[in-house]
Specification:
By secondary structure, this protein is α/β, with parallel strands linked by helices. Helices cover 22% and strands 10% of the residues. The chain has a domain at 65-71 and 81-224: Peptidoglycan recognition protein-like (Lysozyme-like). The chain contains four helices and six strands, in the order αββαβββαβα.
C-alpha cells in the first residue's frame, strides 16, 4: 500500500483557514491522538498579527543540516513514496506528542526515530516531514527532499514539511529553535522561489491545532514582520 497521491489547494494570503474543505489531519505524529486529546480548533478565521517581536539576527543562510544517517534506524522505502513535484509551499508543524525538553543530540535522535517508526507503521515510506528542528537549534534531515512528503492530507505535492520538535500547545519553543526554523525556512524559500504567501502552518491547511498555539503565535507575528524569505 502506497501513500495516496495528493493535490494542492489554491494558496491564500498568509494562511487563513479554508472553510468547508473537510480536511482531516494527516497527523503531526501517530502518537498525537493517543497522547494529546485537545479541544476543538479555536483559532480565528482571519488571524490577527501577533505581537511585534524583537528583531532577529538576519538569516543570510541556514546553518548545516544534520544527516538522517545520524538518527534514523531504518531506510526510506522508495516504492511507498511519490517523487517530489516542483516546490511551491513550505508548511510548519510541531510533533504534537508529550512536551519535549531534551537539548542534546541523543534526545533529538530518539524523538525523530520514534516519529519515523510511527509513520512507517502506517505503511508510509518514511517519516512524513523533510526537516526537523530541535530544542538546541539543530536542523535535521528527515525524509529526503526528492520524495513528496506526508504531512498535510491532500496538500503534499510540492510542499516541504518542517517539524519543530515539541508540543507547542503545552510548552514554548526556545529562542534558538525558532531562529533555526526561520533560517532554514528562509533558505528553502529563496532556493525554491517560494513566496511568503505560500508559507503556512498545518492549521492553515486543515482542521488541526498543529503547530500548537505558541508556535502558531510566533509564525503569525514573524510573517507579519516580514522575517521569512
Amino acid at each position: 500500500m502506497s501513500e495516496p497521491r495528493l493535490e494542492l489547494t489554491t494558496a491564500t494570503r498568509r494562511g487563513f483557514l479554508l472553510a468547508g474543505l473537510g480536511f482531516v489531519m494527516t497527523a503531526c505524529s501517530k502518537t498525537q491522538e493517543a497522547v494529546t486529546m485537545l479541544p476543538a480548533p479555536a483559532w480565528d478565521m482571519h488571524p490577527t498579527p501577533g505581537p511585534r517581536l524583537a528583531q532577529p539576527v538576519p538569516a543570510a543562510a541556514a546553518g548545516p543540516v544534520r544527516s538522517r544517517a545520524e538518527w534514523a534506524t531504518g531506510a526510506p522505502v522508495p516504492a511507498l513514496m511519490d517523487p517530489m513535484a516542483p516546490i511551491r509551499h513550505v508548511t510548519i508543524h510541531h510533533d504534537g506528542m508529550q512536551p519535549f525538553h531534551g537539548s542534546d543530540d541523543r534526545a533529538a535522535e530518539g524523538r525523530l526515530d520514534a516519529i519515523r517508526r510511527a509513520h512507517r507503521s502506517k505503511d508510509w515510506g518514511d517519516i512524513g516531514y523533510h526537516f526537523a528542528v530541535d530544542r538546541a537549534g539543530n536542523v535535521w534531515e528527515a525524509r529526503p527532499l526528492r520524495y513528496q512528503g506526508a504531512h498535510v492530507k491532500n496538500c503534499n505535492e510540492g510542499n516541504i514539511g518542517i517539524v519543530v520538535l515539541g508540543n507547542f500547545d503545552r510548552q514554548r519553543p526556545t529562542d534558538t529553535q525558532v531562529e533555526a526554523l526561520r533560517g532554514q525556512t528562509s533558505m528553502l524559500m529563496r532556493v525554491y522561489g517560494v513566496p511568503p504567501r505560500n508559507l503556512r502552518t498545518h492549521q492553515e491547511w486543515a482542521a488541526t491545532r498543529c503547530p500548537g498555539r505558541h508556535l502558531q503565535q510566533y509564525m503569525v507575528g514573524a510573517r507579519s514582520n516580514g522575517w521569512f524569505g
